[in-house]
Write a structure and sequence with these properties.
261 residues; alpha+beta; Alpha-Beta Plaits; 2 domains; eight-stranded antiparallel beta barrel; 10 helices; 36% helix; 26% strand
Length: 261
């Protein structure tokens, strides 16, 4: 089955609008529909393989993705060295149709040429163990990506898992009706917010924040925690963490030199 056919079937089963048309309520509001954010986690075979992957992304994959219409490709590394070595890639898609089109990447002749060192590795000397990928859809309160200010050096990728599909929707509602606005005025600079529609740890909400440095991150969160509106919202019945959040994953990242986000 072709990827585009599979994608449309999967999306239809999930109750999401098909790839050929933007979400109607977003259109009615005057927007172009939500964007879709694909997150890939490369678990590398050894730390020595990272330069090979980064060179492939910089010289071959990112230019080819840009030619396919993927405007912004983020490449991020863990803030602290860890084992196994991982690299995160974030792709910004304006529609599900564009997401499906990104599957044509290997048909790009320039990519084949410039990415030969990465693409041509033998099975006995692979670059990565596996690539884990998930697809998220922009939420009503933040349907599109907001590119961070230049010089942002600290990023947070946060995943809020919920105990059920219903409570996951409540967490998204919580952001839409107030938490996002509190983030903004607290200095928590959102890059994207996405409801995961395909991938692991579902149901979950995944989002990314950007900061100039660690001090700005700490100041932003400290301001957020004592905001009176946040105190009121988080204690509202139906919105408390114990009701709608089962686990939070916090991943601290720094941008690779080739990152476009």
């Amino acid at each position: 089955m072709k990827r585009s056919t599979f994608l449309k079937s999967t999306v239809a089963a999930a109750g999401i609008v098909g790839a050929s048309r933007a979400v109607p309520d977003a259109e009615a509001a005057g927007g172009a529909g939500p964007e879709y954010f694909e997150i890939r986690k490369y678990t590398l075979k050894t730390p020595e393989k990272r330069p090979i992957l980064e060179a492939y992304l910089k010289d071959a994959a990112i230019p080819a993705l840009n030619r396919l219409g993927v405007r912004n490709v983020g490449v991020f590394l863990p803030e602290k060295l860890e084992s196994p070595t991982v690299v995160y890639v974030v792709l910004r898609h304006t529609s599900l149709e564009q997401f499906a089109k990104s599957g044509e990447l290997l048909s790009d002749a320039a990519l084949q040429q410039k990415g030969a060192d990465y693409l041509g590795v033998p099975a006995t000397d692979v670059v990565f163990d596996r690539v884990e990928s998930w697809l998220t859809k922009g939420i009503e309160g933040m349907p599109a990506m907001a590119l961070p200010e230049k010089g942002s050096e600290v990023y947070q990728l946060r995943i809020y898992e919920s105990p059920s599909e219903k409570t996951a929707k409540k967490k998204i509602e919580m952001f839409n009706i107030g938490e996002l606005e509190i983030f903004k005025r607290s200095g928590l600079n959102a890059v994207f917010f996405g409801e995961t529609i395909v991938g692991p740890l579902m149901p979950n909400l995944t989002y990314m924040l950007a900061f100039s440095d660690v001090a700005a991150k700490e100041q932003g969160w400290n301001t957020f925690r004592v905001d009176p509106e946040w105190t009121k919202l988080k204690n509202t019945p139906g919105f408390t963490d114990k009701e709608i959040v089962s686990r939070i994953t916090n991943i601290m990242l720094v941008p690779a030199p080739c990152s476009q986000i």
